């Protein structure tokens, strides 16, 4: 005879939340979460109450008021009657400019130094070691200030260019003026300009896109696309017939003829800087503050990148080099074609955090008076309006957004170069 | 710098309310020390000397307040602030009062929630240029590069001045007076602009002051004075009347030299009320009876402070001008001690 028994009823008692190992961790997590949320709520409530007591409730209305201050480096149109939001936006663009310039330069210098530090040439390797150790071990703020001081103290003032027998002269066929207020280089001008598109109307985020620049980019991309087409066709012919047709003259023509034609149609010419009144006018003015910040940030970050690159290269087994040598590749090609592509997989992830660091370090710009977003929104705007909390929160939001965007792009790139497991 | 701003911003909430509730005067007495915000260094107004002792016109006000409240002019913790950090420092309670060439404006008073307790120097914004540029008026500065201290009213006045005169300029924002001086002397800017008194003080420290001229234009009104947070009127009164005591002392001829005999009692009832030998003004403020005597003894009356730190016999060489007593045709005027 069989006895059918019901499975034991799953009884649940409250004490099991603590004594039953199945539930205990959940209980602890729930309690911790609750505590954390209470703390956050208390902080938030405390802040809001105290701000209200001070008579400064959170209010973003100040962003619409005229900023009343001028910004020297503005890539978009701006004057002192524009709003605080516009001023912040100009600052944001300046931050992005120095971040992008810095990241590119840091990567180039960093990779170069990282590779050279492994050089068999004793002198080269040692010099690179000294460079890396010097830059890595001194705070970046000091490098920024030092770079600025050198630029200001060692270069001639514009008034030194004046007179019949000036103390200083312009360089490169009288087209570049290097002064202690910055470097003036010739600017590209178009006599038959296509004008520009005005995005976002009259709002604070208005943005002009130059059609000339767009046309140049479109032609350039089309040319590159055509060149790749020609190259792949050549490869195809080579595979079927064994003879690779000559392509370099076609490629050169594709690259240059349309571009030159376009520039001729647009009436391209250079605008040279010239001394007029107190300063040079005309040309593109790269201010000292930008140069100092750019230089110091990229050299500083390059030192870290160099170490990452060196680590990445050392992580590749020596067998790879030997195999490449056995195939008859010369050292340069071995590095470029065999080692670096594999090392990239190790290099990319830590590289992301260095790009993020560079971007965040750019907030030290105020030390040299570079008007980045910390200088405008987190500096003058905050000071003139007294909206500390709002400004700092917005500033944090901006940096968070920039950093997350960089992470996203780099993670995508990382996923592309990552080792594909088969 | 950035850290302190963020920290300050976040502690505005935490500290300010607490400080206002407890009363700044009691806090200062309990602490035994006055936290006074000053500049990071402007000779004549506030700068440490070779021994690290702070001295200057604004420092004198801090010392007078410390003497009035605590009886000891040395019981001051000087907190150097830049144009940018000063308001956050005051709002967050890091300092009890700010005496830092700060211009009294509507929005600072009303919107930033500060109480300006008076004016200790009537100033205006001027321009300094090297003599060799041959500029004689600010209106000739079209296209010039101008060094400005960021976070100040001068920045806004400058934008307005150039805009209304329809001329262009290139601003170079700078954090402190010392950096501005370095850039100006290196020729990285043609012009340095700030309050005329600040220009005079800065020029006095140059190797060759005569190679630089102040342009005749004064483009703004800059009444400079000490300030405290909104919401603690009692403390505001203490600072206000300490400043007034210094001014009244000069008007009544009470100086650090004769204060000993005068405090014993004179024929002038106002002097007696001021110095505490008659009436109970000190008690009304929550201070001792000899508060004003201590304040004046700290570094002299208003006139003495002026002459000693920025007057015509100092390298800075500022004339009294607008800052003479009202009896001498100036604007310095204290309400009566009654």
TrEMBL record, chain A:
InterPro entries: AA_ABC_transptr_permease_3TM, ArtM/GltK/GlnP/TcyL/YhdX-like, MetI-like, MetI-like_sf. It is a multi-pass membrane protein. GO terms for cellular component: ATP-binding cassette (ABC) transporter complex. Residues 92-410 form the ABC transmembrane type-1 domain. PROSITE patterns: ABC_TM1. It holds the Pfam family BPD_transp_1. The keyword Membrane applies. It is found in: Cell inner membrane; Cell membrane. It comes from the Bacteria. GO terms for biological process: amino acid transport. The chain crosses the membrane at residues 23-44, 89-113, 134-152, 209-227, 248-271, 291-316, 362-380, 392-413. PANTHER family: AMINO-ACID ABC TRANSPORTER PERMEASE PROTEIN YHDX-RELATED (PTHR30614:SF37), MEMBRANE COMPONENT OF AMINO ACID ABC TRANSPORTER (PTHR30614). This is L-glutamine ABC transporter membrane protein /L-glutamate ABC transporter membrane protein /L-aspartate ABC transporter membrane protein /L-asparagine ABC transporter membrane protein. It comes from Shimia aestuarii.
UniProtKB/TrEMBL annotation, chain B:
Residues 1-21 form the signal peptide. It comes from the Bacteria. Belongs to the bacterial solute-binding protein 3 family. Keywords: Signal, Transport. This is L-glutamine-binding protein /L-glutamate-binding protein /L-aspartate-binding protein /L-asparagine-binding protein. It holds the Pfam family SBP_bac_3. Residues 33-262 form the Solute-binding protein family 3/N-terminal domain. GO terms for biological process: amino acid transport. Gene3D superfamilies: Periplasmic binding protein-like II. It comes from Shimia aestuarii.
